[in-house]
Design goal:
11 strands, 385 residues, alpha+beta, 10 helices, Beta-lactamase, two-stranded antiparallel sheet, Diverse_Enzym_Activities, single chain
Length: 385
């Protein structure tokens, strides 16, 4: 299948800043910047006026938060302004950036679960990018390589001197974040099933879950309720109104819709117990106590609170093999993240429309997830491997 001609123009508008979607770098930036910033203490999240004041102190226009407990939505709110003078609303539409990949991953894994797709089958059976057709490594690339970010590709081909896609190392040999990998997977899926990724997602996820406000491309009807992106200085940025879908980026959704998706994940995500376990398994190490699973970052949380070395048992964390599934996203003027705790049946979803949005993560993690949230922060900011 040909490469969409508009993809390169879309990525030109969302430049190499997307490379910062590498989760470790984002989280480290969050903690260090949060510590350096002035501003009042975190408010009670049930006090909407106080939260709005807090956001203004942080120079963040809008914040959407969803908190799930016992496998169900417990709190869900949207605060602040979508743009200057436009109040937030519960059905506000956010660009969730790289959190898009969680949808693509779960579409793929549900096809695997149904016996219609294989994790370790070469994608060359269905698609080969013209840029790598003469490289024998293209014949070895698999879905597992893509979902674990071991393709050997850069984040985007525009980062390479030639502007063409190429392998920087052999597939499956090490971890390197790549949006190109997910786009490669999209083309392979679309080639085999003769359906677009949007159609596959509609049939597998969006329609069954009632996610009526979620789409891969821009919808002009959402203009009045869209959370416009803002830079760190509070300047409104240009909206990327993409007409071509992207498996790695630019999904538009609401906090209500995405919490439906996360509720589904907490209830197994349509997968067999064995496949869910494989999805949450340690496919490749990112850093101490953090791994890539299949489409999700995995955190081992037992013995990892603030101030404790790796592996030390502690009293304020459960010892039942607690772990988290997570994925973050960053585009210019956008910071988003989802964290899922399958053992305790809790989850947290955060959408912001600001380059400053990541500064809220440490406080929100502690507020909603307690010691487990602090453990994730500790893992991402620990300097030793």
């Amino acid at each position: 299948m040909p490469i969409p001609t508009k993809l390169s123009s879309i990525k030109a508008e969302v430049p190499s800043l997307l490379h910062l979607a590498c989760f470790t770098m984002l989280f480290f930036m969050a903690i260090t910047s949060a510590k350096a910033q002035p501003g009042g203490a975190m408010p009670d999240m049930s006090d909407s006026p106080a939260v709005t004041r807090w956001l203004k102190e942080k120079n963040i226009p809008a914040l959407a938060v969803g908190f799930l407990e016992n496998g169900e939505v417990k709190q869900m709110n949207v605060f602040g302004e979508l743009k200057a003078g436009v109040p937030s609303r519960k059905d506000a539409v956010f660009n969730v950036a790289s959190v898009t990949k969680t949808i693509t991953a779960m579409v793929t894994l549900n096809l695997v679960n149904a016996g219609k797709w294989q994790l370790d089958e070469p994608l060359a059976h269905y698609f080969t990018d013209p840029d790598v057709k003469d490289d024998p490594r293209s014949g070895r690339l698999t879905t597992r390589d893509i979902l674990t970010h071991r393709t050997g590709f850069p984040n985007w081909r525009s980062e390479l001197p030639t502007g063409k896609l190429g392998f920087q190392f052999d597939p499956g040999t090490k971890h390197q974040y790549s949006g190109e990998g997910f786009e490669y997977l999209r083309r392979a899926l679309e080639s085999k099933f003769r359906r677009s990724l949007a159609q596959l997602a509609d049939s597998i996820i969006f329609t069954p879950l009632g996610m009526r406000d979620t789409r891969f491309t821009w919808n002009a009807a959402d203009e009045s309720r869209f959370a416009y992106p803002f830079n760190a200085e509070g300047k409104q940025l240009e909206v990327v109104r993409n007409t071509e879908p992207n498996a790695a980026d630019l999904l538009k959704t609401t906090i209500t819709d995405y919490c439906k998706f996360i509720t589904w994940i907490l209830n197994g995500g349509g997968l067999s117990e064995a496949l869910f376990k494989e999805m949450a398994s340690h496919q490749v190490e990112r850093k101490a106590n953090s791994y890539m699973g299949l489409g999700w970052v995995i955190y081992d949380l037992v013995g990892n609170p603030v101030g404790n070395p790796v592996g030390n048992p502690v009293g304020n964390l459960a010892t039942n093999g607690a772990y988290a599934l997570s994925h973050g996203g960053h585009d210019p003027g956008v910071h988003t993240i989802a964290v899922v705790l399958p053992k305790s049946q809790k989850a947290l979803v955060i959408f912001t429309n600001s380059d400053n949005g990541i500064k809220l993560y440490p406080d929100l993690f502690k507020y909603y997830l307690g010691a487990h949230g602090e453990a994730i922060v500790a893992i991402e900011t620990r300097k030793n491997h």
